UniProtKB/TrEMBL annotation:
Tr-type G domain ranges (all copies): 3-176
Gene Ontology terms, MF aspect: translation elongation factor activity
Protein function: Translation factor necessary for the incorporation of selenocysteine into proteins. It probably replaces EF-Tu for the insertion of selenocysteine directed by the UGA codon. SelB binds GTP and GDP.
Localisation: Cytoplasm
Keyword GTP-binding appears in the UniProt entry: yes
Biological source species: Litchfieldia luteola
Entries under Pfam families matching the protein: Beta-barrel_SelB, GTP_EFTU, GTP_EFTU_D2, WHD_2nd_SelB, WHD_3rd_SelB
Keywords: Cytoplasm, Elongation factor, GTP-binding, Nucleotide-binding, Protein biosynthesis
UniProt-listed CDD domains: SelB, SelB_II, selB_III
PANTHER family xrefs: ELONGATION FACTOR TU, MITOCHONDRIAL (PTHR43721:SF22), ELONGATION FACTOR TU-RELATED (PTHR43721)
NCBIfam families: selB (TIGR00475), small_GTP (TIGR00231)
Gene from which this protein is expressed: selB
Official protein name in the record: Selenocysteine-specific elongation factor
Length: 628
């Protein structure tokens, strides 16, 4: 059984003992920078493996607590499954603790544990009182019912209990989706001497294998996973929920930065306009006005943008969710359901958080109609969610649909029987609208190809796949092409695909000259000139001459005698009739020469052609007819 992978985040106010607790749990000091050692505060994200049992692979992220490093904090917690809120027994819940709580809530973290640190700094009899005070202050947050574990990281008191609590909490959390397309928001970029550029992050979804072809978004830089490491151990793959370092080929540190996203699929959306639903913090200090500047933290990226309302011009005391739009200054990578945080640049504060309704927002008018449309888009019926997922991904397995829609297995199975859903192969599905879209794309592609290549038998199937594979999976392409052939919309000739009504024809402006070339070739019978001489004699440009030769050869109307000479099929057929009529079961060079009245210059290539066509078989100085 494969290990389930999870990522735990450490959160809390500065100097409440997150890094020390991480070391107590993992035996790893995550403060690795010289400045962190000197100032005794965490500046960058720290990572460590936590070994509890053989069934789980757990990574711990120690996020900075200082307000100046809130960006790193958000980048760290964006991919976690469980959070440990560290609260010092001698200080209790502090302002930074509350901000971290708001951020965790906005990012959709469902489960947490409260670790009361530094219990050695309070009297033993006050520990229970401290627990009660902290529990009271956490009411109304995601930690309202969270287990509380008092610990002393230096003496290791309570660490075993905390590990057991972690195990219990993780057992109730569903593992991330390792079946879909790979996606990894990058939170660290660095260079390893002798290896090149390495990126690190938490795998949001999917699986990556060593050697996989990847794309860095939003720059669309193509790369390859040269090597994978999970906590400094080389691995051949990494799955959703795991922390992984990836050595990339053909990439410098100028090509990639924190906030970029590494993907294995062409189906992820790059956007600068998102339809969103947001909730504002309860104690908003300043008005948020229409088109206010905001910092949007999504995944591991931080991008400036504007918030656009459609039913108001400002927000101050708003407890309900608001549907609106975020228009960003730079492109980011996201999908429906992704969580984000909005912060005011100045004065610096967290103002809201929410999730993406539609990553490809449009331009809408201010008013009730737009708000109603966004609310409908937000809710989405189960079938809407199914069609949205299939429209976006084009092809999904049943397991992937369950993950993408967050619907129960039974609901998905019922939806898959809908007449608009097509089962491409066992438990792999698409929509009729997607198939229709692909029909149109293929027909347009072939139509344009026929217009510019009237002598070609059709477009190579591999070229169709290459042209359309950025938007449509190969399995779906094969399915639709076979369906179109069965329906008589297209036809297949060997490896070539053409519209059913298409017949190769000479381009009108060159038709007469092409006919003249073919007639000259036939008239010269067996004593042919070089192909270049025929082309020159007919006055055909090289491009058209090559097209004609390709067409005649692939239509089996022309045979290549040698590098410079060709011969028409009609001429060969006529020679065969004469040769068969005048010879027995076998013949030699003299027999052929007497029958065809040819010199060796023309005769030898002709007889070798007959061997190639498997019409004759040479044995010593004789050729034997191959019966057909």
């Amino acid at each position: 059984m494969e290990k389930r992978s999870f990522t735990i985040g450490m959160a809390g106010h500065i100097d409440h003992g997150k890094t020390t607790l991480t070391k107590a749990l993992t035996n790893v000091d995550t403060d690795r920078l010289k400045e962190e050692k000197e100032r005794q505060i965490s500046i960058e994200l720290g990572f460590a493996p936590l070994h509890i049992n053989e069934e789980m692979q757990i990574s711990v992220i120690d996020v900075p607590g200082h307000e100046r490093f809130i960006r790193q904090m958000i980048a760290g917690v964006a991919g976690i499954d469980l959070v440990i809120l560290v609260v010092a027994a001698d200080e209790g819940v502090m302002p930074q603790t509350k901000e971290h709580l708001e951020i965790l809530s906005f990012l959709g973290v469902k489960r947490g544990i409260v670790a009361i640190s530094k219990i050695d700094r309070v009297e033993e009899e006050f520990t229970e009182l401290v627990k009660e005070e902290i529990a009271e202050q956490l009411q109304g947050t995601l930690f309202a019912d969270a287990p509380i574990v008092p610990i002393n990281s230096l003496s290791k008191m309570g660490i075993d209990e905390l590990k057991s609590t972690i195990l219990n909490q993780l057992s109730h959390i569903e593992a991330r989706n390792s079946l879909g397309s790979f996606r990894l928001p990058i939170d660290q970029v660095f260079t390893v001497k002798g290896q090149g550029t390495v990126v690190r992050g938490t795998v949001y979804e999917g699986t990556i294998f060593e050697g996989d072809q990847l794309t860095i978004l939003p720059s669309f830089h193509e790369t390859k996973a040269r090597q994978l490491q999970i906590h400094q151990i080389q691995m051949d793959k990494a799955t959703a929920g795991q922390r992984v370092a990836i050595n990339l080929s053909n990439v410098t540190t100028d090509d990639v930065t924190r906030g970029d996203v590494l993907v294995s699929s062409k189906h992820y959306v790059v956007t600068q306009t998102m339809d969103v639903v947001i909730r504002f913090v309860s104690d908003l200090e300043h008005l948020v006005k229409q088109r206010a500047l905001v910092k949007c933290h999504i995944g591991t990226s931080e991008v400036m943008g504007q918030i656009v309302f459609f039913d108001r011009n400002e927000v101050k005391d708003e407890l309900d969710e608001v549907v609106c739009q975020i228009r960003l200054d730079q492109p980011i990578v996201t999908k429906r359901g992704d969580r984000f945080i909005l912060r005011r640049p100045t004065p610096s504060e967290t103002i809201a958080g929410g999730w993406v309704i539609d990553p490809l927002g449009g331009k809408y008018k201010f008013g009730k109609d737009t708000v109603s449309m966004l609310l409908q888009k937000k809710e989405g019926s189960p079938f809407d969610r199914l069609t949205e997922a299939l429209q976006r991904e084009k092809l999904l397995s049943k397991a992937e649909i369950i993950k993408a829609t967050s619907l129960a297995k039974e609901s998905v199975e019922e939806l898959l029987s809908h007449q608009e859903v097509i089962e491409v192969k066992a438990n792999i599905y698409t929509l009729k609208t997607v198939v229709s879209e692909l029909h149109i794309k293929i027909e347009e592609l072939l139509q344009n190809y026929h217009l510019g290549n009237s002598l070609r038998l059709g477009l190579n199937k591999a070229e169709i796949s290459q042209e359309l594979s950025s938007k449509f999976p190969k399995t779906l392409l094969d399915f639709v092409i076979e369906g179109m052939i069965t329906e008589g919309k297209i036809k297949k000739n060997g490896q070539f695909i053409a519209l059913d009504h298409f017949k190769p024809s000479f381009p009108s402006q060159w038709a007469k000259r092409m006919d003249n070339l073919i007639n000259s070739l036939i008239e010269d019978n067996l004593q042919v000139k070089t192909w270049d001489e025929y082309v020159s004699q007919a006055g055909l440009p090289d491009k058209e001459a090559n097209e004609l030769k390709w067409f005649l050869t692939n239509s089996n109307l022309l045979y290549q005698l040698d590098e410079k000479h060709v011969i028409h099929k009609n001429v060969v057929d006529k020679a065969l009739i004469n040769l068969r009529a005048s010879t027995g079961e076998s013949f030699d060079l003299k027999d052929a020469k007497d029958t065809l009245q040819l010199s060796r210059k023309y005769l030898v290539p002709l007889l070798e052609l007959l061997d190639t066509l498997n019409l004759t078989k040479r044995e010593d100085n004789k050729r034997i007819w191959v019966e057909k």
